[in-house]
Write a structure and sequence with these properties.
binds magnesium ion, 10 strands, Rossmann fold, single chain, binds adenosine-5'-diphosphate, six-stranded mixed sheet, about 250 residues, alpha/beta
């Protein structure tokens, strides 16, 4: 299998159990899931249905109790903790509800950080971080600290940070959960544009508006994927109806 056609995500019989005996919780109760390169997937489901647990597994922040997870062809079970964080840094760009930017640190520095972890030299790091910030429409805010930016701008910095390392997967957990409707639109348009450029995106959300942008929607219930549907989305509209990107 060549690099281009192996799935980004391949979960086989994945189970995650917490506790034991009478207090056992099957947070993820047997999930098979393949996500190909370039797909844009929304994971929905009620609170407690297992979304975050699944996201933690997909993001290599947690390991399954049973089953196999291959990220871009790599069986993550076989990795040491150190190798796992390296894979995480190299393969995945994370976007969180609460932005998770470092306070009192410029947007540019925030975006440079994952590149620094990846061992990219100072000069290239600065160039790539600046390019990522330009990509999200924030070239005029590179020197601003998070506290000097709106929520929507902070989330765009977080998107820049997530794409700066050119990861195979963008993984977002309720990325618009803390945003007003205007900033939500900005972030969703940005995702649309990244998807149109071939990025693989998995977004966890309980908002229909967010899921409407994805090409595929999974619905979780009691730790299993109850529905897995392809949908007509903004990406299928004729170009003149497609939203323009923020950058
Ligand atoms: P969601 O993100 O869809 O709200 P979660 O993945 O957070 O769902 O949780 C799924 C189930 O697993 C819930 O019943 C939750 O209480 C349980 N759970 C999640 N994390 C833990 C944990 N660290 N210890 C025990 N139970 C947990
Ligand atoms: Mg959750």
């Amino acid at each position: 299998m060549t690099r281009a056609d192996r799935p980004v995500i391949d979960l086989r019989g994945v189970v995650k159990t917490y506790g034991e005996g009478e207090t056992v919780v099957h947070a993820v109760a047997g999930v098979d899931l393949t996500v190909e390169r370039g797909d844009y997937v929304a994971i929905m489901g009620a609170s407690g249905s297992g979304k975050s647990t699944l996201m933690n597994i997909i993001g290599c922040l947690d390991v399954p109790t049973a089953g196999v997870y291959r990220l871009d062809g790599i069986d993550v079970r076989r990795l040491t903790d150190g190798q796992q964080s390296k894979i995480r840094n190299r393969k995945i760009g994370f976007i969180f509800q609460s932005f998770n930017l470092i306070a009192r640190t410029s947007a540019l520095r925030n975006v440079e950080l994952p590149l620094a972890y990846a061992g990219v030299g100072a000069r290239e790091r600065r160039e790539r971080a600046a390019a990522a910030l330009a990509r999200v429409g924030l070239s005029d805010r590179v020197g601003h600290n998070p506290s000097q930016l709106s929520g929507g701008q902070q989330q765009r910095v977080a998107v820049a940070r997530a794409i700066a390392t050119e990861p195979v997967l963008l993984l977002a957990d309720e990325p618009t959960g803390a945003l007003d409707s205007h900033s939500t639109d900005d972030v969703l348009r940005l995702f649309d544009s990244l998807s149109a450029n071939g990025r693989t995106i998995v977004v966890i959300t309980h908002e229909n508006e967010v899921a409407a942008h994805a090409k595929r929607v999974l619905r979780m219930r009691d730790g299993v994927v109850e529905h897995d549907d392809r949908q007509v989305g903004v990406h299928d509209l004729p170009p003149r109806y497609q939203p323009t990107a923020a950058a």
